[in-house]
Amino acid sequence: MEFSLHPSLFAQDWNRSVIANGGSFLQSYEWGEFQKKFGRGVSRAIVKKNGTVLLCANIIHYRLPFNKWYWYVPYGPVVGAQDQSQKETVDFFVRQLQSAAPENVIFIKIEPDAGFDVSLLSDALAKSDKDIQATETMIMDLSQTEDELLSKMKQKTRYNIKVALRHEIKIISPDKQGKLDPDIFLSLLSDTAKRNRFRLHPNKYYTDMMELFLGKEIKARAPQYAQRLFFAQYGDQIVAVALVGFFGARATYLHGASSEKHRAAMAPYLLHWEIMRFAKSRGFSEYDFWGITTERTKEQNRKKWDGFSRFKIGFAGGVTEYPGAYDFPLNRLWYTAYGAVRKMRTLWR
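RE: above sequence
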């Protein structure tokens, strides 16, 4: 087997490999470019055998105090579905990554995608007590007809979609998404965060993302990652907005916001229903609500996100669980110190 860090590979070739093996948008070539634009280091790794790609992975570099770092593989690595020796391939990948990491990288965090067999990970990787991505989500099967999708939703969700229609809520998603559209999104997002007391990324995170991904062609299985803004309008006011990503066969709800005004019009229900209909029309077979809470969710997160989760669960998609994150310490002393400091910060919060 051959291991390459920073391989010479075109974006479309990378994406075709990720899509062919069911990989997440977090493993798309463009997501790595976005992380670079936001100021993080990014490595890409490939494992090949006889010219065939067996594994690929985006690796994001996160800075820690005292010039220390950890390397993070989000919803990856992407392992070839036809690879007959997947455990050997994954072991080889981890060993090579360990050798390639500079001395100031104190651990590697691998957070596999749903469906990844964690038995492929060696015993050197221990279950982490810190997951970064959602560990549970709800995915709508868009291969069903619209009538089938509606019939499976909870009665209250169907009713609220009808309420929004009676209020003549309009769902708008212009083909040309200009500067005004992101500004509306950021304004509503800020208001929603203050109202619900959750923290946001810096504005630069969202503006960098939208500069890279808005306006790209949206088509299922196209070898690129794209995003689109969807707005719900009541009268002459925007009352809800959603930022949705498109990659492979899946559309993913990334960020959303709504106004306190005209809540009785139930705009967010119609907004998501129309997003699903749009995704179906472009050939996508899944709509991921990107995170819900279940009995498995840690209590702290369950309390924080329970209201958003109830809204999503009303659409009655299939619940998908992820394995969670696994850590591979490269410097045991620094890794132990990092864990202790992080726990103290959690208790303080």
